Amino acid sequence: xxxxxxxxxxxxxxxxxxxxxxxxxxxxxxxxxxxxxxxxxxxxxxxxxxxxxxxxxxxxxxxxxxxxxxxxxxxxxxxxxxxxxxxxxxxxxxxxxxxxxxxxxxxxxxxxxxxxxxxxxxxxxxxxxxxxxxxx
Length: 136
Description:
The chain is mainly β.
């Protein structure tokens, strides 16, 4: 499932191939008007696009599974309870910052950025609990 930036100028999506052991890898690309497919690049994170949330058109947060075995892109349902790390991604600079693993080592589902940009909220796929992950 693709994930559009707030303005619709960029699109985030997952791709899997034999080159990556059929693990989902995040890519970003321009998505509007003359920028369609412009600046397309691999973000070097193995996760699914719907495990990410945009803070702005250039900053996003992603839940990255601690371990993805070969073939994860073909059998996602086998990895629904995998523990995740939270990454901050700046698509302008390409920087990736590992912000750590939430307490209780949950499996992130439905990640959103809080309205004040100070926290992320998500459901733990294993327990269904709502979890707050502080960004400051």
